[in-house]
Amino acid sequence: MTQPTHDLDLVVFGATSFVGQILTRYLSEYLSGSGETLRWAIAGRSDAKLRHVREALGAAWQTLPIIVADAADDMQLQALCARTRVVVSTVGPYALYGEPLVRICAQTGTDYCDLTGETQWIKRMIERYEPAARQSGARIVHCCGFDSVPSDIGVLFLQQHARRQWGAPATHVKMRVKTLKGGASGGTVASVINVVREAAADPALRRELLDPYALCPADHRFTVRQHAVRSAEFDRDSGAWIAPFVMAAINERVVHRSNALANDAYGSRFAYDEAVITGTGLKGRLAALTMVAGLGAFMAGVLIPPVRGLMERFLLPKPGEGPSVAAQLAGRYDLRFFGRADDGRTLRVKVTGDRDPGYGSTGKMLGQAALSLALDCSRDGAKTGRGGGFWTPATMFDERFIERLERHAGLRFEVLPDA
């Protein structure tokens, strides 16, 4: 295997993908004005497309290194990892294309982050490659986009304030989506379709996906029955009707893994669930029922090949397609967290983002996660407690990451006054 020389700090792998282009543009703009120094490069399987991406960055970046590497070519991936300390990957669906890079990063001690929300794939990666990552020192951090940074860091932020105010963490936290404005890309749709198809063909996987502790270490001791919002419900904390949130399936599991990796920092009886606020009164209830029916129809359509084909041809965005720049700028989100202690005390937190959640905002969050790995996080795991292994955003990153998100990624974390 090629011995590492590390002439680079960071490589963006999949720079020609829809999100990869957003991420590359964001990093070039950020590094042009931040004063931070980073040796970085863009990588992908097409030299011509990579050159096109580089040309779009402007004159200042025309010497940015390009690395040609295919997601399925081990030798090319090994050569890439030999040159850099950190890789950030946007090559999805990860369950189809992501494993070779994670495996080689784990073997070579190369830090890695991505924006996957594919629970079943993450679990497989942990089971297969965590021993290698621990031995090599590679820190692997999945879910560094909209799923699951706002949820994972939002809960961490709430719990930090709960300890300051109460001397103990909240035992029950809910996240409610108040506002969510944004579109979907072909890559995200392809990932969702792949998860649904895998689950439909595998009863064991369906059971696994229903387990709220699916991503927790095997020796976790959590036994609290978790509430999953699967239909229209009235939520007393928000005073409104709620419906299932499509990202809850990954976010809830990441938050529970964070609790486990942090030695039960939120408590062994911690409960967490997510949902979308649809409104009050009859209108809110009808909106919740409509959302439930729509999600059900989409899932059913994915499982019927002729219907899925029609959806992919006429209704759904194709790979490489996604919201326009104007739509990304017009997007936003507002998430509300409700924390409750055993004695009834409550704490409310608001997390907002200033861009389309899945793309404009995700590109900035993923960029700051990659920068945190490359510039902030010490390689001395003995001192930080964050050595090689598979981490979550809330357990890998520290206060500097929250500061990065607020100063450079358009997020805001705030404690709300008592109602």
Summarize the SSE layout with pairings.
Blueprint: E1 8-13, H1 18-34, E2 40-44, H2 47-56, E3 66-68, H3 74-83, E4 84-89, H4 94-97, H5 99-108, E5 111-114, H6 119-136, E6 139-141, H7 149-166, E7 172-181, H8 186-201, H9 203-210, E8 233-235, E9 240-243, H10 248-261, E10 271-279, H11 281-303, H12 305-315, H13 325-330, E11 332-340, E12 346-353, H14 357-376, H15 381-384, E13 389-391, H16 393-396, H17 399-408, E14 411-416
Parallel strand pairs: 1-2, 1-4, 2-3, 4-5, 5-6, 6-13, 7-10
Antiparallel strand pairs: 7-11, 8-9, 9-10, 11-12, 12-14
Kindly summarize this structure in a few lines.
The chain is α/β, with parallel strands linked by helices.
Q: What this model shows, in words?
A:
There is one protein chain. The protein has helices at residues 18-34, 47-56, 74-83, 94-97, 99-108, 119-136, 149-166, 186-201, 203-210, 248-261, 281-303, 305-315, 325-330, 357-376, 381-384, 393-396, 399-408, and strands at residues 8-13, 40-44, 66-68, 84-89, 111-114, 139-141, 172-181, 233-235, 240-243, 271-279, 332-340, 346-353, 389-391, 411-416. Helix 8 crosses helix 9 (203-210) and helix 14 (357-376) crosses helix 17 (399-408). Helix content is 48%, strand content 19%. It is of the alpha/beta class. The model has no long low-confidence stretch (mean pLDDT 92). A seven-stranded parallel sheet has the order 3-2-1-4-5-6-13, sandwiched between helices. 47% of the residues are buried. The protein has 17 helices and 14 strands.
